[in-house]
Amino acid sequence: MTPRLRCVDLDRWLEAFKYILEHGLNPGYGLRDIGPTDGSDLPPLVRYLLGKERYEGVWSPFDDARSEMRAVVEVTGLDVEVVYDLTELVIEEVLDPKAELCVRARRQTADELIINHKLILLTEGSSDKWAIEGAFQILYPHLTEYYSFMDFGAMRAPGSAGQLVATLKAFAGAGIVNRTIALFDNDTAARDARRSLHGVELPDNFRVVHYPDVEWARTYPTLGPQGLTVMDVNGLAGSLEMYLGWDVLLRPDGSRTPVQWRGFVEGVKAYQGEVMDKSRLHKKFASKLDECRKDPAAATRYDWSGMRAIIDAIRTAFDDL
Hints:
Layout: H1 10-22, H2 44-51, H3 65-76, H4 87-91, H5 101-110, H6 113-116, E1 119-123, H7 126-139, E2 147-149, H8 152-155, H9 161-173, E3 180-184, E4 186-187, H10 188-194, E5 206-210, E6 220-224, E7 227-231, E8 237-238, H11 246-249, E9 259-265, E10 270-275, H12 278-294, H13 305-315
Parallel strand pairs: 1-2, 1-3, 3-5, 6-9
Antiparallel strand pairs: 4-8, 6-7, 9-10
């Protein structure tokens, strides 16, 4: 009797599939072909994977064959030759042996544009694009091909929270079908600009994301009319510079580069804060990127927690789909 499945996650499935490979069990014919035993001595999940008679092969929880293939590679590695045996399909004249299967597959995936094409990232300005794109290349180089940043230089596009709102509306109105993320700063100006999106129903392939709240910003030095004070600047002064890393934010004397309070924004009843010495911070981050590009091992010597927080917000923006 095939055991009933109570629970399975990806790690347990990988473990069971690895067991099947290592013990030479035939995944093509279920429990009928495992040898003289009835399979009762096998781990329950292995028996389940091999015993699902309605499947020709190992049972898997994946709806997409590409996800299943990716999981198999996780076990076998990239050096194993994968053979797709189409003999039965050809014998039964279901498939023409001269058919251009790769061309057909590309045509099918082209119909799934939203999933298979690059995710578009819209930022408030060119500095945001430069820094996040650079961090992606250092921290997640294997993911860079899946994201496309708006090129401010080539398009001569102005940068600001208000302009990002306008660009977002233009993309939505034009019917852009790519998954698109509008990435706002975590500050007062961004919250004020976003008010104009109230009542605007964006398509399902659009997301509005702010730089996330971070723990170190809860007690951060600020400079205002009352001098230097420490306070929570999340949502008030969380511009790009706050996420470049502690190694960038620290001044030569070891103190943190303070946030300076600017004007009061009536729309959200809060002051706008900005990190001081932005040009100096950008230069330090540029040097950080250059060193890590030349020597990838150097990345471990720097703080990337802020950039990781931003990239994680990007990577999980469509998790609800």
